[in-house]
Amino acid sequence: MSTQLTHAPLSRNILGHAQSFFAHAAELATAFISAVHCARDFERLNALSDAQLAEHGLAREDLAQHVFRNRS
Question: For the whole prediction, is pTM greater than 0.85?
Answer without folding.
Answer: no
